[in-house]
Amino acid sequence: MTENVKFYHQKSKIFNNMKELNPITGLSPAQEKAISLLVGGLSKTETCKELKIDRSTLYLWERKESLMVYYNAQVKEVQYFIKNGLFGLYEDALQSIEDSIHCDNLSIRLKATIWLLERIANYHTGPVDLRTHLKSKCRKDKYDLEAILGFNQEKYRELCKINDIDCDQGK
After folding, report:
1. Helix (H) or strand (E) holding 54
2. pLDDT by residue, tens only, the chain of 171 residues
3. Rounded alpha-carbon distances, angstroms, from residue 103 to 55, 57, 91, 97, 109
């Protein structure tokens, strides 16, 4: 199968699944599964194999703002559980640090652990609510001549349509 035929075959499979879109996220179950796999630590290649899709399909999906927002929401949820889990594990963490005193390369292990925990705790996610994100793109900035008008409802509806979500749902 040539690359163009393969690409259009993948694209037609994507559009055939549009009926299944989640009205809240604007994503298909396969797209939501892809995000879950990626957030769960699988590589893009492994995710594509798991979902039986071509990498180009995943890259196409990544262009959707709704996918980016859903990804950010999933990362934020993982961070929440990690932070809460860390509070519950502080005694175990202290014990592990104490135990690692008896291991080789204590300095390296301790520094790596601290570095990782700081990065997870301070990782900045982008927008996690698609409607709020799209609405922010429809506000006029202070240098815009139309700033007096404020919110551009028409642009918001257009962005919702592009991202396959219902503008009025989830208010």
Report:
1. none
2. 555 445 444 554 554 455 688 888 889 999 999 999 999 999 999 999 999 999 999 999 999 899 999 999 999 998 888 888 777 777 786 566 556 645 677 676 777 677 667 767 887 888 888 888 888 877 665 555 555 566 778 888 888 888 888 887 755
3. 42, 46, 19, 10, 9
| Structural domain count of the chain | 3
For residue 15, the enclosing domain spans 3-63
* Structure tokens, 6: 């393969």
- Whole-angstrom distance, CA of residue 131 vs CA of residue 135: 6
Distance CA 47, CA 37 (A): 6
Identify the burial level of 66 via C-beta atoms within 10 angstroms of its C-beta, where 0-12 means exposed, 13-18 middle and 19 or more buried.
buried
Rounded to 5°, the CA angle 167-135-138 comes to 115
Express the helix, strand and coil content of the chain in percent, nearest 5 each.
Answer: 70, 0, 30
For residue 19, what is the domain's CATH number?
Answer: 1.10.10
Do 8 and 57 sit in the same domain of this protein?
yes
Domain boundary among 44, 63, 82: 63
